[in-house]
Design goal:
The complex is a heterotetramer, with two copies of chain A (about 80 residues) and two copies of chain B (about 150 residues). Chain A has about 80 residues and is α+β, with helices and mostly antiparallel strands. Chain A has two helices and five strands; from the N terminus they run βαβαβββ. In chain A, strands 2-1-5-3-4 form a five-stranded mixed beta sheet, with no helix packed on it. The radius of gyration of chain B is 16 Å and the shape is elongated. The chains are: A alpha+beta (about 80), B alpha+beta (about 150). Chains B and C meet through helix 1, strand 2 and helix 3 of B and helix 1, strand 2 and helix 3 of C.
C-alpha cells in the first residue's frame, strides 16, 4: 500500500528529505520503521522514538491503512 | 474558539500574549518564558534551531491547556512556541496563565511548561561557537544505538 | 546599584520591568503579577487601596531579593508594588526572576511573592459595591479584640 | 523624651493623622503602644502588631531613645 511519511529533525537530516511517499508491505508502524531505518541508515533505534499516524500519537503495533500519514518522533528537547 | 496553543515562526511578543489572558476575575497571573542562553553544559552556544511537527503540537498543546484549565481552575491560559533559528536572548517559548489565586497559577504554569517540553514534538538543535552542532537528546542516544 | 525592590504610585508596566531582568546567561524567566480581581469571598469588589510603609518596605524588600538570588542561584530579580487606589484588573504587584534553569525561577518567584505578601508592611483596603469597606486582616482581628 | 510616630492603614484612620510627635514616659515600644492605644482608642491589641524603630523591625521590649521614629505595623494584606 501507499503511505506518506513526514520527517523531522535528526530523521529529516538523515533521510535527506522532509516528506516522502512510500509503497510498503509493512503491516504495522513498527515494521515500517524497520524498513525505513534500513533504507535511510537511521542511527536511532525504535525504542527511543514515538510514532504518530494522521497527526495523532499511535502505538507501534497499530495497523497501517492506505493513505496514512506517518511521523516518527525522535527524542524531543526536554529540559 | 481562538487557539490556546500555537507555533510561531516569528518573534514572540510577551506583552501582546499577556493581554490575551487578562480576566477581571483573576487575581494572579504567572508566566514563563524560555530564553536562548549563551551556555549549555559548559560550552558556549552560538544559536539554536527549533523545529516542530505543527499539526500534532497544536492538537496535543490544546489538549494540555484544556487539561490544565480544568485541573487548576484557571481563568485563562495560553502558550506559544517559536520555531526557526534563534539567537542568544531570544524567546523560545511563552506560557501564561491567570487564576483567582496565585498558588494554582504557579502550579499550572510549571505543569504546562513541563508537559510542553516533555510531550510535544518540538526539537532543538544547538550550534556552539566551536562550530559543532547537534539535536538535543538525539545525538547521544543515537551514538549509544550505533 | 539599581534598587531591586520598589514602591510605585503609578501604574506598573510589565514589559518595561521585564527588560530589567534580561540576561544572556538565563534560560528561564518567571514572573508573577497580582491583579485586582472583581470578587472576594463571594462579594463584588469595587476598588482596592494599597498603602505602604515605604522606607521599611524597600529595605526589607531588597534583603528578600538578595536572599532569593543567593538561595535560588538567580541571574536577575526585580519586584515592584503599587500603592494608591486601584480598579479591577489593575496590577498591584510584579515579581520577575531569571535563572539558568526554569525550576529555580519558579521556586524563587513563588518564594518572593509569598515573602513580600507576608513580611512587608503593605496594607490593602477593600471597598465593595455595596459601599462597605475594610482593611484586610485588620477589621476582623480588631472585632475579636474589641 | 520626644519621639515621632508614623501611622499607617487602620491605625492612621483611627488616630486621625499620619504622623505625630509625642512626649512620652514610655521606656519600651510595648509601653508606648499601650499609651497610644489608650489615647487613640485603637481596636487592635499589641499581639496582632509588629513594631519598627528607625525603619527597622524591632522587638516590643526594645528600649526607646529620644528622636526615635516608631511605626506600629497592623496585620498586612497577606494572601
Amino acid at each position: 500500500m501507499n503511505l506518506s511519511i513526514a520527517w523531522f529533525s535528526i530523521l529529516r537530516e538523515q533521510a535527506g528529505c522532509s516528506e516522502e511517499s512510500v509503497e510498503t508491505s509493512a503491516i504495522t508502524a513498527s515494521e515500517l520503521y524497520g524498513q525505513m531505518r534500513a533504507k535511510h541508515r537511521f542511527t536511532l533505534a525504535q525504542g527511543s522514538l514515538r510514532v504518530a499516524i494522521n497527526d495523532e500519537f499511535a502505538q507501534w503495533d497499530d495497523r497501517l491503512a492506505p493513505g496514512d500519514r506517518v511521523v516518527f518522533i525522535a527524542p524531543v528537547g526536554g529540559g | 474558539m481562538m487557539p490556546r496553543f500555537s507555533i510561531s515562526e516569528t518573534p514572540l511578543l510577551g506583552d501582546a500574549l499577556r493581554r490575551q489572558v487578562l480576566d477581571p476575575s483573576a487575581g494572579g497571573f504567572v508566566c514563563f518564558e524560555g530564553w536562548v542562553r549563551d551556555h549549555h553544559e559548559g560550552r558556549t552556544v552560538e544559536f539554536l534551531e527549533y523545529e516542530a511537527y505543527e499539526a500534532l503540537c497544536c492538537r496535543s498543546g490544546e489538549a494540555l491547556i484544556a487539561r490544565a484549565m480544568e485541573k487548576f481552575s484557571l481563568r485563562q491560559a495560553l502558550a506559544v512556541h517559536r520555531t526557526g533559528r534563534l539567537g542568544i536572548g531570544e524567546m523560545a517559548v511563552w506560557v501564561g496563565v491567570s487564576s483567582d489565586h496565585r498558588r494554582e497559577a504557579f502550579q499550572a504554569c510549571e505543569w504546562l511548561i513541563d508537559r510542553i517540553k516533555h510531550d510535544l514534538p518540538i526539537w532543538k538543535k544547538e550550534t556552539f561557537v566551536d562550530g559543532s552542532s547537534g539535536w538535543v537528546n538525539c545525538e547521544r542516544c543515537a551514538a549509544h544505538a550505533a
